[in-house]
Amino acid sequence: MTQIKGLDIGIYAMKEQFPGEPEAYTLVGGGRGATLSMSAESMDITSKDTGGWMDSISGFKSWESSTDGIVVIDDAGFEDLESAFFEGRKVKVSFKKPSGWGYTGFALVNSLEFEAGHEDVVTYSISLTGAGALAKTEDTVVV
Question: CB of 103 within 8 A of CB of 128?
Fold first, then answer.
């Protein structure tokens, strides 16, 4: 069993691409933290046939992600998320290790926050809401 260090996980954004262009993800720079939350609604299917026990089935699934870090001027990954926010468009993001293991999907940037303390570096916080399915990705093995 191999453990994964939090330091190895980042949020990557894919620049808006044009037909025929290959997918290219860019790490959102200055990152300090990254979270990914997945959930599923449950639907009650309890009936007289369930022997007095509650019963449920899985319904709609959803996911959210967030990241925070130090603002790095002209960071391409941050700029991809920032432009998606201002344009109100979906952006393909990945919560992953550089080798490929992680999760990928389209999301909307629903909050972008800056903090500038008196004796501190300027930091950012970004929240993303999934817009469709989330796919698991595997490590890329280099031979």
Answer: no
CB atoms within 10 A of CB 45: 11
CA 54 to chain centre: 33
Q: In one letter, which amino acid is 5? A: K
User: Which residue has tokens 């996980």?
Assistant: 9
Q: What tokens does 130 get?
A: 């999934």
Residues 9-34: tens digit of each pLDDT: 899 998 766 677 777 889 999 999 99
- DSSP class of residue 133 equals -
**Cβ atoms within 10 Å, residue 47:** 8
pTM of structure = 0.84
Structure-block tokens of residue 64: 């959210």
pLDDT tens for each residue of 39-71: 999 999 999 999 999 999 999 999 999 999 999
